[in-house]
Amino acid sequence: MPMNFAKTALLLAALTGIFVAMGAAVGGQNGMIIAFIVALGMNMLSLWKSDTMVLKMFGAQEVDAQSAPEYYGIVQEMARRAELPMPRVYIMQQSQPNAFATGRSPQRAAVAASTGLIESLTPEELAGVMAHELAHIKNRDTLTMAVAATIGGAISMLAQYLQFGMLFGGNRDQNGGGGIGMIGSILAMLVAPLAAMLVQMAISRSREYQADRMGALICGNPRWLASALVKIQNAAKRIPNEDAEAVPAAAHMFIINPLTGHGVDNMFSTHPNTENRIAELEALERELAAAGAPLNVPLSIPGVARGRRVDGNSGGANPWGTPGDTGGRQAGPWG
């Protein structure tokens, strides 16, 4: 945990420096002072309210056992298996299947899934995804992830302002007062890649492998998560996520990169290759099987059928099934 807090502090310092430099480019010395004051306020907000800010950023709505009984019940079961406090549970009205976790501590954690995710996955696959997100909470990754999303998003918006000013004549420093100027114009073109680089440095791709492994252990079956990753990856390529495209600095929070990969968005790819993640989960399944661990512990969720296989096959050469394959069975209450 001390390493996690140290990483967060370094991230805050670096992003604050960029924000102050951009303030100087916009308004000279006065702009730098204003930006520094604003950055201090943002730092405090991001440390204490980053979870709320991120959830609002993606229009997430809180649900409970009455409004979303099966989804809520799966999160509740995975939290019990993970020995974590029950997080707040949210739904995003978004057709792209995806999910993320946020919160500065397990006691103030939240998980969010899109409607596309809930509708397209089986209960077991959804359990694997939620277990992955709870693993981030258990590993205390979520504070760093949320801070990077909130401040990185603010820097991206300020960069867009600088570019807007350059297009409409803001590069002409008429009063000699240190306005945007040519330096500001150049900064506008450089700041987004620089912010992306800092996010990548702060958010190691290794944390996704760690969350995959722990999530598979929490849900009890690596193939539940692997099957979900295949479906999410295939759908994310076809279905845009407008909210994530507007704030690419928050892309690292999702279980699969939500960006389409056009232009500068590629620089915000903090996710490892999905095929490599699945290979690691395959290796973990073999490891657990060799140790004699049970891999078909049913979900104890009211209204969810028990003991169903995610892939629908009986141990052929391709244990993960084909993308989107449900083995000829009904997918259950989510479609």
Write up this protein.
- It is a single chain.
- This protein is mainly alpha-helical and 335 residues long.
- It has one domain.
- It is 58% helix and 5% strand.
- The chain contains 10 helices and 4 strands, in the order αβαβββαααααααα.
- The chain has helices at residues 2-57, 69-82, 115-120, 123-138, 142-167, 181-202, 206-219, 222-238, 242-246, 274-290; strands at residues 61-63, 88-92, 99-102, 110-114.
- It has a 4-stranded mixed β-sheet with strand order 1-2-4-3, with helices on both faces.
- Helix 1 crosses helix 5, helix 4 packs across helix 8 and helix 7 (206-219) packs across helix 8.
- The longest helix is centred in the N-terminal third of the chain and has 56 residues, at 2-57.
- The radius of gyration is 22 Å and the shape is elongated.
- The protein starts with a helix and ends in a 45-residue tail after the last helix.
Give the biggest sheet. Answer: 4 strands, mixed
When the domains are counted, the total is 1
Counted beta strands: 4
Continuous helix count: 10
How confident is the prediction overall: mean pLDDT?
76
**Overall geometry:** elongated
Structural class comes to: mainly alpha
Element order: H for helix, E for strand: HEHEEEHHHHHHHH
- Share of helix among residues? 55-70%
Query: Are there runs of 5+ residues with pLDDT below 50, and where?
Result: 174-179, 263-268, 306-335
User: How would you describe the oligomerization state of the chains in this entry?
Assistant: single chain
Strand fraction: 5-15%
In the sheet with the most strands, the strands line up as 1-2-4-3
Give the end-to-end Cα distance, rounded to a whole number of Å: 40 Å
